[in-house]
Design a protein that fits this description.
The complex is a heterodimer of chains A (327) and B (305).
Chain A: H1 3-24, H2 31-49, H3 51-54, H4 58-75, H5 83-100, H6 102-123, H7 131-135, H8 138-147, H9 159-184, H10 188-209, H11 216-223, H12 227-249, H13 256-287, H14 295-315, H15 320-326
Helix pairs in contact in A: 1-2, 1-4, 2-4, 5-13, 6-10, 6-12, 9-10, 9-12, 9-13, 10-11, 12-13, 12-14
Chain B: E1 11-15, E2 21-26, H1 29-61, H2 64-89, H3 95-100, E3 102-106, H4 114-122, H5 124-127, H6 135-142, H7 149-154, E4 156-160, H8 175-181, H9 192-204, H10 210-228, H11 236-249, H12 252-269
Antiparallel strand pairs in B: 1-2, 2-4, 3-4
Classes of the chains: A mainly alpha (327), B alpha+beta (305).
């Protein structure tokens, strides 16, 4: 059979497939149309596979490549969120991964090291007397002193303000976490931004803990409820980011690209867990921390969230391998 | 075109579950930048419109706090998850990508999942890392599949997805090519590489000037003329067109009919030609064949006195 005849015969099919490709991106097809579409797609695949033995001209072969590519993209579509998979990932895979992850552990030490060092420097009046004033931007100190003059009793907050602040915290704090994660890929910027956050937070805590700062009591009253979630989330995002940076610096037996890809797929769920923690922290910070709830309730929230985190990381995260070996 | 230069053409091969290898063309920075700019424009406009709409509806009727909270959250979502959500639900495309005709796939050519979509868009922050805003561009030039950092982390590539039009076989406007096809030995079998070369040449020849056609066709035409025993001054271009016609268009039966016609025509033109028993016996001098107007380049420049 000559090429002309072959093209004439197939042309109808190919053009029908093209029309389906155009339509499918705008609307969904019914069952009969879908089966017709896949039959046409397979026929086009077969034509492409046989193009060499049919001796199709080069232009037609290229046309077929593009047609098959388009149809392939329409037939095999992006998988959407599967909630069971996500639940398993967040409750099983992520804690176990975090429990064993050297980078998260390193980042934990790194963050808390800077935090405690900076808190001590800000607290101590002899080691570095002006530390807090030098580290923190002056308007931030003023704002903090202004803000914590009164105990957080909910007197200046209504539901609107709470909502607004919760949304602000979601936007702002999760943004910081995502930045720690993303810049962690470049290692040095990631370490810098994490250290900066640790120093700021530490300096604020240390400064407020000074006995001669009257706002201190109110400050600790305010931060205790949301502190555990927020600080853990920052450590987690920074650790996940550092892991990605290490993936291309020390790829082990894989190539750098493959190592980056493997670790990326592993660390993204960790970042999702961190984002969830930021969300909880923001809700607590928006609604519970500034409210008139008694201090024992806020301490209770603090304890409960710490216990939840402990359960998540230690109980859910304890390696199954060791658990099975002990049995 | 026996081997296409995949690296130069930035083509990757993808094997589908149907066990077919087909080709994709990778999208380089100059295709992706417009898509990015369109997406940024859309994001900015959407945030602006969202803010106004929320402020008007919720702010006026329910409460200012709720409106501000929603604006703040929509800003957050647009800033970090615009690309990821669109690529998840629009099958690897954002509006900007759809307008510029590109699509995100995994490195194996499969559709991406939600996690990959979100991750590759989060890492735009590292690609456009502020002190070095061209970092992503640098990384793209350093790897073979022009992936930026976000693509490397999530294992994705961006490909061009274009419509192309079915061209069919090239049309031969010159009847002399068909006539010449009658002179070709019918038992000559066109091999596959030769067929491919013929197709490539004939589909492109309309872009060339006659002189250029002669130059290009010479490499194949010269040995073929010797092999077929045709006169050496036959137009190479016409010869290749005739072979193309024989290979791709004419039917075997059609061929023989036309051969008979052409022989008859040749007999009229050249009364001295001898009838031959089998078409393979081309040991006679054929009649003068149609020539293209060709400018012969003199070997030495004429001396002027």
């Amino acid at each position: 059979m000559k090429v002309v005849e072959l093209l004439e015969r197939r042309r109808q099919n190919w053009q029908e497939l093209e029309r389906y490709c155009d339509r499918i991106s705008q609307s969904t097809l019914n069952t009969a149309e879908i089966s017709r579409f896949s039959a046409l797609y397979r026929a086009a695949c077969a034509d492409l596979a046989l193009s060499n033995s049919y001796q199709l001209p080069e232009n037609t072969v290229q046309y077929l490549h593009k047609l098959v590519g388009r149809a392939h993209n329409q037939l095999y579509r992006a998988r959407q969120f599967d909630y069971k998979v996500w639940a398993k990932m967040l409750l099983e895979d992520v804690p176990q991964r975090i429990f064993n992850d050297r980078c998260v552990q390193t980042m934990f030490v790194f963050f808390w090291g800077f935090f405690i060092l900076s808190a001590w420097l800000a607290y101590s009046k002899t080691a570095w007397p002006e530390f807090a004033e030098e580290m923190l931007p002056p308007q931030m100190l003023e704002q903090m002193q202004e803000h914590f003059k009164k105990p957080p009793d909910g007197s200046d907050r209504d539901g609107d303000t709470n909502l607004r602040m919760a949304a602000f915290y979601i936007n702002h704090n999760t943004g910081i976490g995502l930045q720690c994660f993303v810049w962690g890929l470049l290692v040095v910027p990631g370490l810098y931004i994490t250290a900066k956050n640790a120093v700021w937070l530490g300096a604020a805590f240390g400064y407020m803990a000074r006995p001669d700062v009257p706002q201190g009591e109110h400050f600790f009253h305010f931060v205790r409820a949301h502190g555990p979630f927020e600080l853990t989330a920052i450590v987690l995002s920074a650790g996940a980011g550092l892991r990605l940076g290490m993936a291309w610096i020390m790829p082990g037996q894989l190539s750098r690209g493959a190592s980056l890809q493997k670790n990326g797929a592993e660390m993204m769920p960790v970042m999702c867990a961190a984002m969830l923690m930021f969300l909880f922290a923001a809700l607590i910070e928006g609604f519970i921390s500034p409210s008139s709830a008694p201090i024992w309730l806020k301490s209770g929230v603090c304890l409960l969230s710490s216990a939840l985190l402990g359960f998540y990381f230690v109980v859910l995260g304890f390696p199954r391998r060791l658990l099975n070996a002990a049995r | 075109m026996a081997q296409r230069h995949e690296q130069i053409d930035s083509i990757i091969r993808v094997v589908t579950p149907e066990n077919i290898a087909f080709e994709y063309r990778l999208a380089g920075p100059f295709r992706r930048l417009p898509a990015l700019l369109i997406d940024w424009t859309i994001t900015a406009t959407a945030i602006f419109i969202c803010a106004i709409a929320i402020a008007i509806t919720f702010g006026a009727f329910i409460s200012g706090g709720l409106a501000e909270a929603m604006i703040s959250i929509s800003f957050f979502v647009f800033r970090w998850f615009y690309g990821g959500l669109f690529e998840t639900f629009m099958n690897g495309q954002t509006p900007g990508k759809r307008l510029t005709g590109i699509r995100v796939l995994t490195t194996e050519g499969q559709p991406i999942n939600g996690l990959q979509a979100i991750m590759r868009n989060l890492f735009r922050g590292a690609d456009l890392f502020l002190p070095l805003p061209c970092l992503g561009l640098l990384v793209m030039t350093l790897n073979k599949r022009s992936q930026r950092l976000g693509d490397l982390v999530s294992g994705t590539i961006v490909v061009v997805e274009q419509n192309s039009w079915l061209t069919g076989v090239a049309k031969l406007e010159d009847p002399r090519a068909i006539q010449l096809a009658g002179y070709l030995p019918p038992n000559f079998i066109v091999s596959r590489p030769l067929a491919r070369a013929l197709a490539t040449y004939v589909e492109r020849r309309r872009f060339f000037s006659p002189l250029r056609r002669r130059e290009v066709a010479k490499h194949l035409g010269e040995p073929l003329l010797v092999q077929f025993g045709l006169p050496a001054d036959t137009s190479y271009d016409l010869l290749l067109c005739a072979l193309y016609y024989r290979t791709f268009i004419a039917d075997r039966g059609e061929d023989e009919r036309r051969l008979a016609e052409a022989t008859a025509a040749a007999a009229q033109v050249n009364p001295f030609s001898q009838p031959f028993a089998t078409p393979a016996q081309f040991n006679y001098k054929p009649p003068p064949l149609p020539q293209e107007q060709m400018v012969t380049i003199p070997a030495t420049p004429p001396r002027q006195f």
